Amino acid sequence: MSKPPLDRHALGRRLSKLANASTADLVQLQRLEPCANPARRIGLTGPPGAGKSTLAGHLALHRGRDRRLGVLAVDPSSPKSGGAILGDRIRMDELAGSSEIYIRSIGSRSASDGLSDNLPEMLDVMDEFGFDEVLLETVGVGQAEYAARAQVDTLALVLLPESGDVVQAMKAGIMEMADIFVVNKSDLPAAQKMATDIQRISALSRRPEDAWRPPVLLVSSMKPETVSALSAAIDRHQAWLAESDRRAALLQARARYRLRRLIERRAADAVASLDAKTLEAPLEQQLEQALQEIRRLSTTH
Ligand SMILES: Nc1nc2c(ncn2[C@@H]2O[C@H](COP(=O)(O)OP(=O)(O)OP(=O)(O)O)[C@@H](O)[C@H]2O)c(=O)[nH]1
Ligand SMILES: [Mg+2]
């Protein structure tokens, strides 16, 4: 079944509208029918400068040959959207003719977890526009990874050799979260040692018999064969997910995350609107007022 051509302008408009939507708008904009063919979602996450955007570009060229592929980069430093930052990393002539690749960076706005507030809804829009696959780039060690985990099917943690990234990642408790470990810029020294360290740490965690065992890959954007190997590992993980009903648990976690974020944002709005007098009242009364305000916000919007 062939798809209608990708309408980049319409997609851009929808994403911009969502990027600026309030919680009240969101509920209005919410699609009621789940998408029959949702895009595969692949996350690239890791500390600043690990080479995620460069890698996303190479992966997009590799995987986007015969698919409609979107790249969304959540960029904490970019309040504006438009894809310039990520777009710069890919030579435009390389993309010429690939009318099915769409790239956009989105500001992280107010979200405390480093993701854009309305990212779940933006990802839904990618489904609606017939994308086969979406690569999601998020920056950070810690909060952003937890948040990204819920949004994607396959999460690759991108780390730099000789950076102390592994120690940071362990401290932040995100080693268990990755489906694939990427020791990136493996053209640099000490990459192999880092890969061995990760293997050792990863082998320590107890997993059920049939659990996914995250591979550790040495990748360099300068070596196309390493990007192919990463792409193949992504396919293997996707196939493993599809094998039984593993995706159901992921989808549940995703729905929970979205609802929690919505409630958190409403709660923040409600607390911000309480007046000085209420804030001097006993805590129980403050709580009562705040809950009433949440309810009021939910019914009036
Ligand atoms: N040596 C080497 N350098 C690389 C490689 N991949 C990317 N770089 C360089 O690393 C720098 C950072 O790359 P980015 O792709 O912007 O990294 P990022 O993780 O997206 O950075 P943020 O989004 O700012 O967190 C750039 O100067 C790249 O040219 C690689 O495989 N090897
Ligand atoms: Mg980047």
UniProtKB/TrEMBL annotation:
Q: Where is the AAA+ ATPase domain?
A: 38-254
Q: Name one GO molecular function term.
A: GTP binding
Q: Which keywords does this Swiss-Prot/TrEMBL entry list?
A: Chaperone, GTP-binding, Hydrolase, Nucleotide-binding
Keyword flag Chaperone: yes
Q: SUPFAM superfamilies attached here?
A: P-loop containing nucleoside triphosphate hydrolases
Look up the signal peptide feature and give its range: none
Superkingdom is: Bacteria
> Kinase as a keyword?
no
Q: Which Pfam families does the UniProt record give?
A: MeaB
Family matches, as InterPro entries: AAA+_ATPase, GTPase/Isobutyryl-CoA_mutase, P-loop_NTPase
What is the name attached to this protein's record?
A: Methylmalonyl Co-A mutase-associated GTPase MeaB
